[in-house]
Task: inverse folding
């Protein structure tokens, strides 16, 4: 749906830009309007709500915290894969009504559900784990996201293309590390959290490259679709250059270590969430 259709077509902005993309399979899931809206909401909730509140509670946004988050991200991407594969359709259908189950198991509701689970796990960890809250926090994530992720893996139908995607991702990370560290002589990838942020974004670009370029998948985000339309490999290059440049800027120009860690965490989560969903969809669905 074009920007003009989204805004001016009969039905109004809410119906055309938000309801139809969420409920009508014939309408592209993302457009300029809802992408901007979701992005603004995400930034406000992350940097003006979550960050100040978690910082007050002494949370250190570091490599260890990101590792504890990974099972929760696995929970979200597993739900997305289950619904993309339509394993429980028509029992659970996508909706924009938050009072129906389908809202919480599809984008964007699935990420709100994941955020709630994450905050519950973190709260329990802080309550009973004190300084060692990471262990409890990660454990709750493994009991939820880990189990759900294992279920998705058990129903994979295309291990071959999944393996190819993993191979593309691994090679991209290795080549990027070599170029940045050995050729350009930059130290940006000596930081473990930086490596996780890079890995998340490479998972996103590598899985999308294979899915859209060779397996018949489409790209819902307008800007990504434009780059992929030029050349699918260009998507990997653009993503890698951007994430390395951003990480370099963060390390050089931001003095607050905890804010620095939170921004890197934010970038890593975005990559693992979007890229991880694309990656396991390849295994769960195969060629479309």
Result:
């Amino acid at each position: 749906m074009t920007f003009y259709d989204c805004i001016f077509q009969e039905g109004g902005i809410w119906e055309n830009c938000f309801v139809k993309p969420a409920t009508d399979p014939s309408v592209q899931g993302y457009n300029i309007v809802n992408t901007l809206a979701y992005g603004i909401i995400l930034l406000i909730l992350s940097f003006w709500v979550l960050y100040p509140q978690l910082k007050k509670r002494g949370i250190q946004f570091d490599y260890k915290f990101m590792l504890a988050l990974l099972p929760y991200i696995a929970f979200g991407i597993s739900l997305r894969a289950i619904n993309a594969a339509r394993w429980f359709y028509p029992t659970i259908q996508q909706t924009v009504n938050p009072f129906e189950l389908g809202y919480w198991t599809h984008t964007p509701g699935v990420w709100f559900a994941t955020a709630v689970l994450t905050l519950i796990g973190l709260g329990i960890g802080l309550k009973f784990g004190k300084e060692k809250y990471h262990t409890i926090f990660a454990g709750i994530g493994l009991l939820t996201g880990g189990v759900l992720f294992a279920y998705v893996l058990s129903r994979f139908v295309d291990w071959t293309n999944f393996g190819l995607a993993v191979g593309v991702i691994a090679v991209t990370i290795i080549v990027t590390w070599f170029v940045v560290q050995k050729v350009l002589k930059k130290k940006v990838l000596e930081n473990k959290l930086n490596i996780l942020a890079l890995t998340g974004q490479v998972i996103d670009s590598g899985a999308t490259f294979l899915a859209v370029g060779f397996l018949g998948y489409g790209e819902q985000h307008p800007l990504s679709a434009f780059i992929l339309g030029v050349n699918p490999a260009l998507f990997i290059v653009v993503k890698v250059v951007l994430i390395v440049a951003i990480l370099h800027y963060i390390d050089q120009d931001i003095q607050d270590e905890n804010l620095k860690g939170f921004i890197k965490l934010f970038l890593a989560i975005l990559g693992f969430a979007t890229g991880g969903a694309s990656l396991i969809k390849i295994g769960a669905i195969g060629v479309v």
Q: What stands out?
A: The chain has twelve helices and no strands.
